[in-house]
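Quick start: read one record
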Amino acid sequence: MTRVMVVDDHPMWREGVARELAEEGYEVVATVGEGGQAVRVAAAARPDVVVLDLQLPDLSGVEVIHGLLAAYPTTRILVLSASGEQQDVLDAVKAGATGYLLKSAARSEFLDAVRRTADGDTVFTPGLAGLVLGEYRRLAAAPAPADEPPRLTDRETEVLRLVAKGLSYKQIAERLVVSHRTVQNHVQNTLHKLQLHNRVELVRYAIEQGLDDRE
Protein backbone atom coordinates (compact mmCIF):
# COMPACT_ATOMS: atom_id res chain seq x y z
CA MET A 1 0.00 0.00 0.00
CA THR A 2 1.34 3.42 -0.97
CA ARG A 3 2.09 5.62 2.05
CA VAL A 4 1.12 9.30 1.65
CA MET A 5 1.65 12.39 3.81
CA VAL A 6 -0.47 15.50 3.21
CA VAL A 7 1.01 18.93 4.01
CA ASP A 8 -1.35 21.93 3.81
CA ASP A 9 -2.06 24.75 6.25
CA HIS A 10 -5.83 24.80 5.56
CA PRO A 11 -7.42 22.15 7.83
CA MET A 12 -10.53 21.57 5.72
CA TRP A 13 -8.54 21.20 2.51
CA ARG A 14 -5.93 19.02 4.22
CA GLU A 15 -8.49 16.65 5.71
CA GLY A 16 -10.46 16.57 2.48
CA VAL A 17 -7.41 15.50 0.49
CA ALA A 18 -6.54 12.89 3.13
CA ARG A 19 -10.08 11.52 3.01
CA GLU A 20 -10.03 11.25 -0.79
CA LEU A 21 -6.73 9.37 -0.63
CA ALA A 22 -7.92 7.00 2.10
CA GLU A 23 -11.11 6.22 0.16
CA GLU A 24 -8.96 5.37 -2.86
CA GLY A 25 -6.96 2.86 -0.82
CA TYR A 26 -3.86 4.87 0.09
CA GLU A 27 -2.38 4.72 3.58
CA VAL A 28 -2.35 8.31 4.85
CA VAL A 29 0.50 8.21 7.36
CA ALA A 30 0.37 11.88 8.43
CA THR A 31 -1.46 15.16 7.85
CA VAL A 32 0.37 18.31 8.94
CA GLY A 33 -0.10 22.06 8.56
CA GLU A 34 3.44 23.43 8.80
CA GLY A 35 6.64 22.83 6.88
CA GLY A 36 8.84 22.34 9.90
CA GLN A 37 6.44 19.80 11.32
CA ALA A 38 6.36 17.97 7.97
CA VAL A 39 10.15 17.68 7.94
CA ARG A 40 10.19 16.35 11.51
CA VAL A 41 7.43 13.82 10.81
CA ALA A 42 8.77 12.56 7.46
CA ALA A 43 11.66 10.52 8.86
CA ALA A 44 9.34 8.55 11.16
CA ALA A 45 6.28 8.39 8.85
CA ARG A 46 8.35 7.24 5.82
CA PRO A 47 5.89 8.39 3.16
CA ASP A 48 6.27 7.15 -0.41
CA VAL A 49 4.58 10.34 -1.63
CA VAL A 50 4.20 13.76 -0.02
CA VAL A 51 1.33 15.92 -1.29
CA LEU A 52 2.65 19.41 -0.54
CA ASP A 53 1.14 22.87 -0.64
CA LEU A 54 3.84 25.51 -1.23
CA GLN A 55 2.16 28.25 0.80
CA LEU A 56 2.91 27.34 4.41
CA PRO A 57 3.12 29.70 7.40
CA ASP A 58 6.62 28.88 8.61
CA LEU A 59 8.86 27.84 5.70
CA SER A 60 9.04 28.46 1.97
CA GLY A 61 8.11 25.65 -0.39
CA VAL A 62 11.74 25.25 -1.46
CA GLU A 63 12.88 24.95 2.17
CA VAL A 64 10.24 22.32 2.88
CA ILE A 65 11.19 20.26 -0.20
CA HIS A 66 14.87 20.36 0.73
CA GLY A 67 14.03 19.43 4.32
CA LEU A 68 11.76 16.54 3.32
CA LEU A 69 14.33 15.04 0.97
CA ALA A 70 17.04 15.42 3.60
CA ALA A 71 14.84 13.70 6.20
CA TYR A 72 13.65 10.91 3.91
CA PRO A 73 15.48 10.93 0.54
CA THR A 74 13.40 8.26 -1.21
CA THR A 75 10.09 10.11 -0.86
CA ARG A 76 8.52 11.61 -3.97
CA ILE A 77 6.98 15.06 -3.68
CA LEU A 78 3.84 16.09 -5.57
CA VAL A 79 3.19 19.81 -5.17
CA LEU A 80 -0.52 20.63 -5.01
CA SER A 81 -0.74 24.41 -5.18
CA ALA A 82 -3.09 27.23 -6.09
CA SER A 83 -0.18 29.00 -7.80
CA GLY A 84 0.68 28.35 -11.41
CA GLU A 85 3.30 31.11 -11.48
CA GLN A 86 6.34 30.18 -13.55
CA GLN A 87 8.86 30.93 -10.80
CA ASP A 88 6.97 28.86 -8.21
CA VAL A 89 6.88 25.87 -10.56
CA LEU A 90 10.54 26.11 -11.54
CA ASP A 91 11.73 26.68 -7.97
CA ALA A 92 9.79 23.63 -6.75
CA VAL A 93 11.11 21.36 -9.51
CA LYS A 94 14.69 22.55 -9.11
CA ALA A 95 14.42 21.86 -5.36
CA GLY A 96 13.44 18.25 -6.08
CA ALA A 97 9.65 18.08 -6.49
CA THR A 98 8.70 15.26 -8.86
CA GLY A 99 5.38 16.75 -9.91
CA TYR A 100 3.32 19.94 -9.79
CA LEU A 101 -0.48 20.00 -9.90
CA LEU A 102 -2.83 22.96 -9.53
CA LYS A 103 -5.56 22.79 -6.90
CA SER A 104 -8.10 23.37 -9.65
CA ALA A 105 -7.43 19.81 -10.89
CA ALA A 106 -10.33 17.37 -10.92
CA ARG A 107 -10.46 14.57 -8.33
CA SER A 108 -9.65 11.94 -10.96
CA GLU A 109 -6.69 13.99 -12.21
CA PHE A 110 -5.36 14.38 -8.67
CA LEU A 111 -5.66 10.68 -7.83
CA ASP A 112 -4.02 9.74 -11.12
CA ALA A 113 -1.19 12.16 -10.34
CA VAL A 114 -0.60 10.55 -6.93
CA ARG A 115 -0.56 7.09 -8.49
CA ARG A 116 1.88 8.12 -11.21
CA THR A 117 4.09 9.97 -8.73
CA ALA A 118 4.26 6.82 -6.59
CA ASP A 119 5.24 4.88 -9.74
CA GLY A 120 8.14 7.29 -10.35
CA ASP A 121 6.65 9.39 -13.14
CA THR A 122 6.84 13.16 -13.32
CA VAL A 123 3.37 14.70 -13.36
CA PHE A 124 2.40 18.25 -14.24
CA THR A 125 -0.81 20.15 -14.80
CA PRO A 126 -1.14 20.52 -18.61
CA GLY A 127 0.99 23.45 -19.76
CA LEU A 128 3.42 23.35 -16.87
CA ALA A 129 5.46 20.47 -18.28
CA GLY A 130 6.30 22.55 -21.34
CA LEU A 131 7.36 25.41 -19.09
CA VAL A 132 9.77 23.18 -17.16
CA LEU A 133 11.21 21.57 -20.30
CA GLY A 134 11.65 25.01 -21.86
CA GLU A 135 13.66 26.17 -18.85
CA TYR A 136 15.84 23.07 -18.98
CA ARG A 137 16.49 23.63 -22.67
CA ARG A 138 17.47 27.22 -21.94
CA LEU A 139 19.90 26.06 -19.26
CA ALA A 140 21.23 23.33 -21.53
CA ALA A 141 22.14 25.96 -24.14
CA ALA A 142 24.58 27.58 -21.73
CA PRO A 143 28.25 26.54 -22.07
CA ALA A 144 29.30 23.75 -19.70
CA PRO A 145 32.58 21.93 -19.02
CA ALA A 146 33.15 19.10 -21.49
CA ASP A 147 33.51 16.27 -18.97
CA GLU A 148 33.53 12.68 -20.18
CA PRO A 149 29.92 11.44 -19.74
CA PRO A 150 29.28 8.14 -17.95
CA ARG A 151 28.89 5.17 -20.29
CA LEU A 152 25.27 3.97 -20.66
CA THR A 153 24.13 0.82 -22.40
CA ASP A 154 22.19 1.12 -25.65
CA ARG A 155 18.96 0.18 -23.85
CA GLU A 156 19.58 2.66 -21.03
CA THR A 157 20.14 5.38 -23.64
CA GLU A 158 16.95 4.35 -25.45
CA VAL A 159 14.93 4.52 -22.22
CA LEU A 160 16.54 7.86 -21.35
CA ARG A 161 15.56 9.26 -24.75
CA LEU A 162 11.93 8.25 -24.19
CA VAL A 163 11.96 9.68 -20.65
CA ALA A 164 13.16 12.99 -22.11
CA LYS A 165 10.25 12.95 -24.57
CA GLY A 166 7.85 12.87 -21.63
CA LEU A 167 6.64 9.28 -21.86
CA SER A 168 5.48 7.57 -18.65
CA TYR A 169 7.09 4.32 -17.53
CA LYS A 170 4.00 2.45 -18.72
CA GLN A 171 4.21 4.05 -22.17
CA ILE A 172 7.93 3.28 -22.40
CA ALA A 173 7.30 -0.34 -21.44
CA GLU A 174 4.64 -0.64 -24.15
CA ARG A 175 6.90 1.03 -26.73
CA LEU A 176 9.85 -1.27 -25.98
CA VAL A 177 7.71 -4.38 -25.31
CA VAL A 178 9.19 -4.90 -21.85
CA SER A 179 7.75 -4.90 -18.33
CA HIS A 180 7.11 -1.79 -16.26
CA ARG A 181 9.64 -3.14 -13.72
CA THR A 182 12.31 -3.48 -16.40
CA VAL A 183 11.89 0.18 -17.33
CA GLN A 184 12.14 1.19 -13.67
CA ASN A 185 15.33 -0.87 -13.31
CA HIS A 186 16.91 0.83 -16.34
CA VAL A 187 16.00 4.24 -14.93
CA GLN A 188 17.41 3.40 -11.49
CA ASN A 189 20.64 2.11 -13.04
CA THR A 190 20.94 5.28 -15.11
CA LEU A 191 20.30 7.51 -12.10
CA HIS A 192 23.06 5.66 -10.23
CA LYS A 193 25.55 5.95 -13.09
CA LEU A 194 24.84 9.66 -13.58
CA GLN A 195 24.73 10.37 -9.83
CA LEU A 196 21.28 11.94 -10.18
CA HIS A 197 18.45 11.74 -7.65
CA ASN A 198 15.14 11.69 -9.50
CA ARG A 199 13.42 11.65 -12.86
CA VAL A 200 13.27 15.44 -13.09
CA GLU A 201 17.06 15.65 -12.94
CA LEU A 202 17.22 12.80 -15.46
CA VAL A 203 15.08 14.74 -17.94
CA ARG A 204 17.33 17.74 -17.58
CA TYR A 205 20.43 15.62 -18.21
CA ALA A 206 18.84 14.05 -21.30
CA ILE A 207 18.00 17.47 -22.73
CA GLU A 208 21.54 18.70 -22.04
CA GLN A 209 22.82 15.71 -24.00
CA GLY A 210 20.44 16.39 -26.89
CA LEU A 211 18.43 13.20 -26.34
CA ASP A 212 14.98 14.80 -26.37
CA ASP A 213 14.64 14.53 -30.19
CA ARG A 214 13.48 18.06 -30.77
CA GLU A 215 12.08 18.51 -34.23
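The mean pLDDT is 86.
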